[in-house]
Write a structure and sequence with these properties.
Layout lengths: L5 H11 L38 E2 L5 E2 L2 E4 L26 H13 L5 E5 L6 H18 L5 E5 L6 H10 L2 E3 L7 H7 L5 H20 L14 E7 L6 H15 L3 E6 L17 H16 L4 H6 L13 H8 L6 E2 L5 H4 L7 H10 L7 H5 L5 H4 L3 E2 L14 H5 L10
Parallel strand pairs: 3-4, 4-5, 5-6, 6-7, 7-8, 9-10
Antiparallel strand pairs: 1-2
Helix pairs in contact: 2-3, 3-4, 4-6, 7-8
Length: 416
């Protein structure tokens, strides 16, 4: 490997990290840099449980982090990965000390508020994991850094190394890579879904033990932001139904904080087994919507699968909630003045905040269609599915052309 300076390494390894979408800090522990730490001095940096890595906080602030790979060299040869062993890309590698110095330097310049660190596998899984842990350890112990740290862990690494990583990091993540076992065997034969889920289970167990030990004052925290994972969408033949079932299983078995979906992007010198085109980005968006509906709207995984078409794919022109509603018209209309929260959340066009406002307002008066119109972007979208004091859809919800009536057409805007 040619000798590169830190700037050249940063250019290569920051670009190589862009394919990892699992960058968020929700649930991380608050740390106050003005409060004296274990060393008796004030710390460096602070973090809040909101969003990070060019995400937007609830008050509109953009929060960012240094997102890099330790190295883009790798002993594995996964077909879909641009950093695979056989890929013809320029290679670079940071030392642990260089990553620490970059993080501190960027923070002092007010460029970042934390670090997202992943890596290709070099030498062995244990050696790579040792380097990742050393970065986090040095930041926390040598520099008293209290900003956000997210480490991408190695499934095959010694569980003790992964546990140590959790003592320093706010969040850990292990990529499940592909939705199905068949897809993983075909495109990443050196990886095993059994080993990946085994590592996830170990992390979940460590987090649960640390949470139970919090009744003791000085018990250490273990990845207070939990763990997450990422699935590549469109590299294999998995349907949206396959993705939804796998994601719901991961949430249930391992208590994941988030499952991220990353649409496959064609790479240089691609393997012949990969598709020539990337899937529509709208497919990734629909999967995020279905994920949100399961996590916050009370939809079961089977209901989201039922929203898909006969081929198992979610429709791209309408969102999953509307697709489900059109298939289950017997559940509508819903009376906004009487229905419980769980039924109101199933009305297309009504979000969690809108439903909360409805429940609060109807305690004082009967709600009319105009009242609902103030809580939603399009009253025409919700009208077929609800009853108000002055509105009843009669046979509107049963019309065969209902989908066309409420689906807005997307037109390409003129640039000039």
């Amino acid at each position: 490997m040619a000798q590169l300076d830190v700037r050249q390494k940063l250019e290569i390894l920051a670009d190589a990290a862009k394919y990892d979408a699992s960058c968020a800090s929700s649930g991380s522990a608050r740390r106050n840099s003005l409060k004296a730490g274990p060393r008796g001095t004030k710390g460096l940096g602070s973090t809040e449980g909101m969003g990070i890595c060019h995400a937007y906080a609830p008050d509109g602030r953009c929060i960012s982090l240094l997102k890099i790979l330790l190295t883009n060299s790798c002993i594995f040869d996964c077909h879909y990965c641009i950093n695979r062993k056989s890929s013809n890309v320029r290679r670079a590698r940071f030392t642990a000390r260089e990553v620490v110095d970059l993080t501190i330097s960027f923070y002092k310049r007010n460029y970042i508020e934390g670090l997202f660190l992943s890596s290709g596998i070099i030498a062995s899984s244990d050696y790579t994991m040792e380097q990742l842990v050393e970065v986090a350890r040095s930041l926390r112990e040598d520099h008293d850094f209290r900003g956000y740290i997210h480490l991408k862990t190695i499934p095959d690494a010694d569980p003790e190394l992964v546990r140590q990583a959790g003592l320093y990091a706010d969040r850990l993540s292990i990529n499940v890579e592909l939705p199905t076992e068949g897809g993983l065997k075909r495109l990443a034969p050196e990886k095993s879904s059994v080993r990946i889920e085994g590592a996830m289970a170990d992390v979940a167990g460590h987090i649960a033990e640390a949470r139970d030990a919090r009744r003791f004052r000085h018990a250490p925290r273990m990845a207070p932001g939990g763990q997450s994972t990422q699935m590549i969408i469109g590299a294999d033949s998995a349907t949206d139904g396959d993705v939804i079932r796998r994601a719901s299983g991961l949430y249930r078995r391992h208590g994941l904080r988030r499952v991220y979906y990353s649409a496959f992007s064609p790479i240089p010198d691609a393997s012949a087994v990969l598709p020539l085109r990337r899937p529509p980005l709208m497919r990734e968006h629909r999967l995020y919507q279905s994920d949100w509906l399961m996590r916050f709207y009370g939809f079961a995984p089977d209901e989201m699968v039922d929203a898909a078409d006969a081929s198992g794919m979610l429709p791209l022109d309408i969102d999953p909630k509307l697709a489900w509603a059109l298939k289950h018209r017997a559940s509508f209309p819903v009376d906004v003045n009487r229905a419980p929260r769980e039924l109101l959340l199933r009305v297309p066009g009504l979000g969690v905040k809108a439903v909360g406002a409805i429940l609060s307002a109807r305690r004082w008066r009967r709600l009319r269609l105009d009242d609902i119109g103030r809580l939603t972007v399009s009253v025409a979208r919700v009208r077929p599915f609800l009853v108000t004091e002055d509105w009843r859809p009669t046979t509107l919800v049963d019309r065969t052309d209902l989908r066309q009536l409420i689906t807005s057409k997307n037109n390409q805007l003129e640039l000039f």
